[in-house]
Specification:
8% strand; two-stranded antiparallel ribbon
Length: 406
């Protein structure tokens, strides 16, 4: 234990020294070994592919988030949204997690850690890919393959004390998509091929944009601003982010080979884009699409403007990275683009107050306000009863005293 503690202290010292060095020297160094030089054509293909793979999950995930919100409201399902407090805490929690992973990679064997991570992300990836494929594959299923619904229910207790521990509905089409997803997952397990990695990564990104909901614009701005600082510090200040990204052997990033024209699908000189640079701006863009839907206008102006701003921000990131030959924090360019676009458009349209006041689930706030009003009214009633009792007691006391005086 003492040796491990010493290694942790030494690693922390090295990181602190690296921060000091990087703050005075922005040139940076490549962490990995020398790469095979890529042709301009190969780099262009890689960057265009990465941009396309980043835009598609945001586009489809945003529209799926609208359907998911409608489904929640129809079923009276309690929404799980990020609060302003959660948004403020997120960058701190993410920093602790990132640095913890970095220490683990420095102290323990990467092979053993990645073996555990691979198994974990295999299970998550198969479920995410199944959820992604089912709406697309279900209409393509032949009529000879019937759509049979199933309901898996596991209940504890009886009567009023009955509690559903497992309540899962699925169909035969879901099972077929699960088998296809498992095949892709096994392919990733066995070969760690970049195509399998991207299929699982895109599934994670689409599900993230669809299911992770920001309740209002203010919360989204707090989250983006915090992660803006987080990304700059961990990329420019230290080598922690780049080290973890290159050591973390899991489908948490999209890859595309820059030497694909020379070596085909077996190429190995990859350009990469982290899923966080897709999902974090993506959930903000999805919120703006839901805002557009709430306005009940014919166009989705706020979604389109912010989606275009994200695209331009991503192009700027790639351009700067290519010019300076150094890893860039994508959120440095994506956050200002995504935050400025809707507010500038709202200024032009006169929708600033409406934009800031919008909430995905206003009924939750109304419920809280009603419950607070009930609590206040109950307190007032209780106070009135208490005052009435004290007045009666005081009157009785006065009467007794007057009788004694007589």
């Amino acid at each position: 234990m003492a040796d491990v503690a010493e290694e942790v202290i030494e690693t922390v010292k090295n990181v602190v020294n690296q921060v000091a060095e990087n703050l005075t020297n922005t040139d940076g160094e490549e962490i990995s070994g020398k790469k095979v030089p890529s042709t301009p054509e190969g780099m262009a293909v890689a960057y265009i592919s990465l941009v396309t793979m980043a835009l598609l999950p945001i586009f489809f995930g945003s529209y799926r988030s609208v359907k998911y919100q409608t489904k929640q409201k129809e079923s009276n399902e309690k929404p799980e949204t990020m609060t302003s407090k959660d948004a403020m805490m997120f960058p701190l929690i993410a920093s602790c997690s990132l640095f913890g992973i970095y220490l683990v990679f420095k102290i323990f064997s990467k092979d053993h850690i990645n073996l555990l991570l691979t198994g974990y992300f295999f299970l998550l990836g198969v479920m995410a890919l199944t959820h992604l494929l089912t709406p697309f594959c279900s209409p393509l299923m032949p009529k000879s393959f019937p759509l049979v619904p199933y309901h898996l229910l596991f209940v504890r207790g009886e009567g009023k004390n009955k509690e559903a521990l497992i309540d899962f509905k699925f169909t035969t089409h879901d099972v077929a998509c699960f088998i296809m997803s498992t095949v892709i997952g096994v392919w990733y397990l066995m070969k760690k091929h970049w195509i399998a990695n991207n299929l699982l990564g895109i599934a994670f990104a689409v599900n993230g944009v669809e299911l992770l909901h920001l309740n209002n614009i203010v919360t989204g701005c707090i989250l983006l601003s915090g992660l803006f600082i987080y990304d700059i510090f961990w990329v420019f200040g230290t080598n922690v982010m780049v080290t973890v990204a290159k050591s973390f052997d899991a489908p948490i990033k999209l890859l595309f080979p820059q030497d694909i024209l020379e070596h085909g699908v077996n190429a190995s000189n990859f350009a990469m884009l982290g899923l966080g640079d897709i999902v974090i701006p993506g959930i903000f863009i999805a919120l703006l699409l839901r805002f557009d839907v709430s306005l009940k206008r014919k166009s989705h102006a706020y979604f389109n403007a912010t989606f275009l701003a994200y695209f331009l921000g991503l192009l700027t990131t790639i351009f700067i990275m290519h010019v300076f030959k150094h890893a860039q924090p994508a959120l440095l360019y994506l956050v200002p683009a995504c935050m400025s676009a809707p507010f500038l458009l709202a200024l032009c349209k006169g929708d600033i107050k409406t934009l800031i006041a919008y909430e995905d689930h206003p009924e939750e706030k109304e419920k809280k306000q009603k419950s607070n009003k009930k609590d206040k009214s109950a307190e007032k009633q209780q106070e009135a009863v208490t005052n009435e009792k004290s007045e009666k007691a005081e009157n009785k006391k006065n009467k007794k005293e007057s009788k004694k005086a007589k």
